[in-house]
Design a protein that fits this description.
By secondary structure, the chain is of the alpha/beta class. It contains 10 helices and 6 strands. The longest helix is centred in the last third of the chain and has 28 residues, at about 180-210. The protein starts with 11 loop residues before the first strand and ends in a 14-residue tail after the last helix.
Length: about 280
């Protein structure tokens, strides 16, 4: 990718190396001791205090310039901001920029505790994308999808969920929880994820027009989409493919919808929910 002329986003929070435990204050310990003398289990007080810890971590100021990967993430995020602002403006809407949080191992979010093993994720309540950069090593080594554009695709997909959140699509998905059967909910989840892939393709189309892409970049994105299809992941981890348990879509579906958004460049062509056959 040609990101040398791309502006940095101001919405990256670097929480790498910051522990997720907020710690228990002296005041809480004093109350716990008093509770013990009153016959109340002190662990109850401590557990309540831990639950009341702020959901958001505050990254400590870091000295020195940002590292190479932070710059890369910041510029890719800046590109998504520019593209989606333009698209929303064209339809008379205003785009809210999400934050992107870099973390190591585990992180607190408004959606609960996030673990690196979960992979990158988007949290609607705090409008943040969370990424442990170790995932990029997995993408390259485990999933055999190397390249900077493959890494950019991951960010663009999660930003696609933010677009869905702003459009009210994620709220409709959440309304199905508890009302739909597991199979129905999984199918809706697949449609949600494929739409985020299509939105990532829309961003790629506009990034190409802005001359940010180099020869081979789109192939890297398609390879990444194929590498994390449910069928391929299930085959790797359990040796058998169970289509009814898919939550993100098959490799072929992910490639198809990413390519569709990329070739069209139009958000309107990403309506996976009205399509009978995915």
């Amino acid at each position: 990718m040609q990101l040398g002329g791309q502006r940095d986003s101001s919405n990256v929070e670097d929480r790498r190396g910051i522990g997720v435990g907020g710690g228990i204050g002296i005041g809480t310990l004093v109350i716990a001791v008093v509770a013990m003398f009153l016959g109340v289990d002190p662990t109850t007080v401590i557990n309540m205090a831990e639950q009341m810890q702020p959901a958001q971590q505050q990254a400590a100021p870091k000295g020195g310039p940002p590292d190479e990967m932070q710059v890369f993430v910041s510029r890719v995020l800046g590109s998504t901001e520019d593209v989606w602002k333009q698209i929303f403006r064209a339809s008379g809407q205003s785009y809210r920029e999400p934050k992107l949080v870099l973390f190591t191992g585990a992180v607190k979010s408004a959606c609960g505790m996030g673990q690196a093993a979960m992979g990158p994720f988007y949290c609607p309540p705090d409008e943040r994308v969370y990424i442990d950069l170790a995932f990029y090593r997995d993408l390259r080594e485990r999933f055999k999808a190397p390249g900077d554009f493959a890494q950019a695709y991951v960010i663009a997909h999660e930003v696609g969920h933010h677009v869905q959140h702003q459009l009210g699509i994620m709220a409709k998905m959440e309304s199905l929880r508890g009302r739909a059967s597991k199979a129905e909910y999984n199918q809706a989840s697949v449609r949600m994820e494929l739409q985020a892939d299509c939105f990532a393709g829309v961003w790629a189309s506009h990034a190409g027009n802005a001359k940010l892409l180099e020869p081979g970049d789109l192939e890297e994105g398609l390879a990444a989409a194929a590498a994390i299809g449910d069928d391929r992941l299930q085959k790797q981890t359990q040796g058998v493919v169970v289509p009814e348990s898919f939550t993100h879509g098959s490799s072929a579906q992910r490639v198809r919808w990413f390519r569709k958004g990329m070739e069209s460049g139009r958000m309107a062509d990403c309506d996976t929910f009205s399509t009978r056959v995915l």
